Amino acid sequence: MIKLTVNGRVHTVDVEPDMPLLWVLRDQLKLMGTKYGCGIAQCGACTVHVDGEPVTSCRAKVGDMVGKKILTIEGLGKPGLHRIQKAWIEHEVPQCGYCQSGMMMAAVALLAKKPKPTDADIDEAMTNLCRCGSYPRVRKAIHAAAGQLSSATAAKKA
Amino acid sequence: MTIAIDRRQFLKASAAVGGGLALEFSLPVAAAPAKGLPPTEVNAWVVIHPDDRVVIRIARSEMGQGTLTALAQLVAEELDCDWMKVTTEFASPNEHIRRKRIWGSMSTGGSQGVRSSQDYVRKGGATAREMLVAAAAQQWKVPAAECKAEKGVITHGASKRRVRYGQMAAAAAKLEPPKDVKLRDPKDWKIAGKPLRRLDIPDKVVGKPVFGVDVDLPGMLHASIFQSPVFGGKVKNVDSAEAEKMRGVKKIVREADFVAVVADNWWRANQAVKALKVEWDEGANGKFSDETIMAMLREGLADPKLPEAKKVGDAAAAMAGAAKVIEAEYASPYLNHATMEPMTCTAWIKPDGFVEVWTSTQNAEASMAAAAETAGVPLEKVEVHKMMLGGGFGRRGAPQDFVKQGVLIAKQVPGVPVKMMWSREEDMRHGYYRPASLVRMKAGLDAQGNCVAFEAKIACPSILALLRPEAIQKGIDFSAVRTLNDMPYTIANQKVDYAMRNGHVPVGFWRAPGLQNAVYRECFIDELAQAAGKDPLEYRLAMLKPGDKNRLVLEAAAKHAGWGKPLPAGVFRGIAMSDGFGSFTAGVAEVSVNAAGELKIHRFVMAIDSGHVVNPDTCAAQAEGNAAYCIGMLYQANTVKNGRMVEGNFDTFQIPGMSEMPKVETVLVPTGGFWGGHGEPGALSFMPAVLNAVHAATGKRVRTLPLKPGELKKA
């Protein structure tokens, strides 16, 4: 039995310690917002926070997660929405949306480290892959969440 | 995220028209559960709740392209309801069949979502509005012509009476629908044509949408699959002794061309798949490689008896009399769609034989047909639940291999729902790839540099031969020859021949099928402009008739990008244009290449005339998406060795990232009067504009994709 703290709740799961956290979240805890994309920590669709750090959960063994605080998209910003989620809505970031949970988790972690990220900071931190091409809007939404866009630009839309 | 099992509202709503079918599971209705009175189906497209919430039915799939919102805008525009009260639900494919395909086409590809259904979805909205007005007029005993509908409220001016749609829906549904309805002139649109927020985004920022891979049903098992690494190979022998002993494994499924493990968790299923020892009968295909495929294509170019895809004038004679002849060969590799969500299908063969399927599909009817055929039941005994798609790009349309596999696996575990998901490696190695191709073009220029003759020989596997053989005409697959055999350029003598050389690699509709031809053509036109010593923009314009919409977009892109104006040091421009998928597009790219030969794309301006624009913001998002998708073409290739695909994951098949993305500026120049697409046209001009800019920067012509390492490095 493994004890896990996810989104502030303690869960006990009966799984192999080498099972990746991703599959414990998805198939055992039914937290499906975190996605599988590659299984080799290349795409970032499975990004969650472990003690505040962005981690690709497809390569994180659940046995190593004991005693750590895990945050997934389902717990982000609760209650309500995190400012990054609000910025995501404001700038209509997602297309298919599949990579977006991981994208937002990475963005929140970036802002925690660099409250006013430069474009270069965003390029460096946001290595998540998106096949639909949401990148320009991801960039804009991160700047907006960081308060780096004028309100006129941010609130152009109906 | 268990799927809300509440089909009641939907069934009650449609009972009056089609009769309900007691399905236990369904997609959640997008609207919050209604309290009290049930909603009313006014017609197939419009369901109205007593509290005025409007549910618009969507027949096409949503894969990120925004069609769901655009179609809802078109219905809501004609219905004239309150947009803030609109939600959507996907129409049930099973009900679609039982109601004689009342929702038109469910296929979502070819940038057709809006343009090929706009007429009937708008009529759906307008018909519902007229029925609501007629019901109010009847109640008030006044002529309907004296009543007005606006934003979900019907008013009678003279008597100052008003009633809400929610109050009239039940009465309206009982009326005979009007035979003829007048649609609004797009210039009067209030909901359509506006950059309204997409309806699917609020859920997508909280991880709520149920994609195919997120289906979760009580008692459901998980499956991972292992297909013959060599295309067309068959299972010869399976040693599953080790896999069977692994934790959570419930069943090993052996089929003709794949083996699957069913377990209580996908990771366990996949671990067990890795422990399988499978011997394959590779057949004859194991001997093929990139080299043999290129030899096959080259042999095609040499074939003296090729079918003609175009013939005007006498290209050979004009070529012989030309002052200058330019010739070039262009080539591209196979490319996987690489949707972020791998192929997936959940299937459940119920005790009564009814088959339920949940899948990310671009064509629900094709999914139904595949499930019915595989399960051996009539279509009426299949329901396909359309899930959100984690990308489509053509992969989830015509080929329904994943549905067939899902049903085959479920047949081995009757009565139990099984969710099959491919690993990324399976997805990368078992695509329906964008065909590899080899094209040789030849042009004759007169003394002034004008192109007087054009010839192209196209060697390319046929997508239609595999997926829609009935659509091949006189040996020509239009998707293999387009852009080269339908040029808007006024060249008097043209001849285009097609060498269908199919090979063993499955091919399919990739984003903008035939896109490679637009790359070749527009790069070759640049070569001609260079040979003529002319500006690439002027050279193109000189070959376009006055009034040609290609001119309009070319001029719009050039103007917006500042064509001809100075650029920062080291930055160079390229231009390209192409019509396709109902629209006209042109693009200008700005790039720089550093001393190490590294390419940076700074900016891409794309002008598009799609006739009408339903949502300018989602159209801009499609332009951005087309740019991102096409950047991949610079370095992606699925290479064939020993009959199988080499690349297995994103470490070797690179998806462009944040840092590679240029600034994308979309210039919408809708001229009205027609309906063009947006999902694919933007792809057509991106890569040729980039490669033409690369030539301007380096003097090097890239004629074979992907780029080779160091290819752009200064010699």
Report on the structure:
Helices cover 33% and strands 13% of the residues of chain A. Chain A is α+β, with helices and mostly antiparallel strands and 158 residues long. A five-stranded mixed β-sheet of chain A has the order 2-1-5-3-4, with helices on both faces. Chain A is globular and about 50 Å long. Chain A starts with a strand and ends with a helix. The C terminus of chain A is likely disordered. In chain B, the strands form seven sheets. In chain B, strands 10-11-8-18-15-16-17 form a seven-stranded mixed β-sheet. In chain B, strand 1 and strand 2 form a beta hairpin. Chain B is globular.
Helical amount among residues of chain B, as a percent range? 25-40%
The total of beta strands of chain A comes to: 5
- CATH class of the largest domain in chain A reads Alpha Beta
CATH architecture of the largest domain in chain B: 2-Layer Sandwich
Q: What is the CATH fold-level name of the largest domain in chain A?
A: Ubiquitin-like (UB roll)
- Molecular shape of chain A: globular
CATH superfamily of the largest domain in chain B: Aldehyde oxidase/xanthine dehydrogenase, molybdopterin binding domain
Largest sheet of chain B: 7 strands, mixed
Number of strands of chain B: 27
- The span between the termini of chain B is 57 Å
Largest interface pair: A-B, 61 and 65 residues
Radius of gyration of chain A: 16 Å
Strand order of the largest sheet of chain A: 2-1-5-3-4
Report how far the terminal alpha carbons of chain A are from each other. 51 Å
Number of discrete domains of chain A: 2
Q: Give the biggest beta sheet of chain A.
A: 5 strands, mixed
Please summarize what this structure is:
The complex is a heterodimer of chains A (158) and B (715). Chain A has 158 residues and is an alpha+beta fold.
